[in-house]
């Protein structure tokens, strides 16, 4: 297709600079996310995908990552899970359907998250009391200085990292192939969506989540890992990896950490747990969720 078509999608003249393309893309997405289009989600989704395609064609790369958008999205989804577990929200039509054990795991994870929040509030109150007492805080001051000093990771974060390391020793031993029928991979290759989740934020549903993000969330929470940001920081050694990279990149890191085959090696296979084809990254994460459930991890 004529490149000028993609310039027009972003309201630009042919030959616009990389900076102009980025600015036009961000302006377009912000406009589509405004209240003006809230009543027409199908239109918004179509126009977002057009804008994303235009950005990719014109720049040769994925659209820019917004850390603020991703952080808000994660917090919004955690809030949704808490409301769902308390009966305040209906279960959305996610592709990844937790079985009973997975539901219990998510409930436990949510309880842990709430407990961490409560402890953080209590800690804040203690620090406030100490600060109000000045420099002579006595025992309380010594306690706070010892346990909440700058640069020291809290115990819960260290425990999370220890769990991640422990799981990494056992997860690669799982049988990731027995639930796959790869006999028709070649004939299904033309139907595989190789880029679903690349550079996309905000998701394709009204609550701002999509299948890749949601499936990644459930796999980690099923394993007892309650903080996605801590997980990616620890596994990659790169601070804010979860916020700075797109869904596809995060999913690829998770798959490597699990010791599972790469998406490219299984795309087009049949998930024997559901008899559905694995045609995008979300399908594959769905399959991995079943593997983990069935093998009692």
Description of the structure:
- The protein is mainly α and 297 residues long.
- The protein has 2 domains: 3-63, DnaJ domain (Helix Hairpins); 65-297, no CATH class.
- Helices cover 60% and strands 2% of the residues.
- It has 14 helices and 3 strands.
- It has helices spanning 3-9, 18-32, 41-59, 67-85, 100-132, 138-147, 155-170, 185-188, 211-222, 228-236, 241-244, 247-258, 263-266, 281-294, and strands at residues 180-181, 270-271, 276-277.
- A hairpin with a 4-residue loop joins strand 2 and strand 3.
- The radius of gyration is 22 Å and the shape is globular.
- The N and C termini lie far apart (48 Å).
- The model is unreliable at 90-110 and 134-149 (pLDDT under 50).
Brief summary:
With 297 residues, the protein is mainly α. It contains 14 helices and three strands. The model is unreliable at 90-110 and 134-149 (pLDDT under 50).
Question: Based on helices, strands and strand pairing, what is the structural class?
Answer: mainly alpha
SS strand fraction: under 5%
Mean pLDDT, nearest integer? Answer: 75
Poorly predicted regions: 90-110, 134-149
Tell me the total number of β-strands: 3
Q: Which strand order do you get reading across the main beta sheet?
A: 1-2-3
Number of domains: 2
Spatial extent as radius of gyration: 22 Å
User: Per the principal axes of the C-alpha atoms, what is the gross shape?
Assistant: globular
Query: From N to C, what is the helix and strand string?
Result: HHHHHHHEHHHHHHEEH
Helix content: 55-70%
Largest sheet, if any? 3 strands, antiparallel
Q: What's the helix count?
A: 14
Instruction: Give the N-to-C terminal Cα separation.
Output: 48 Å
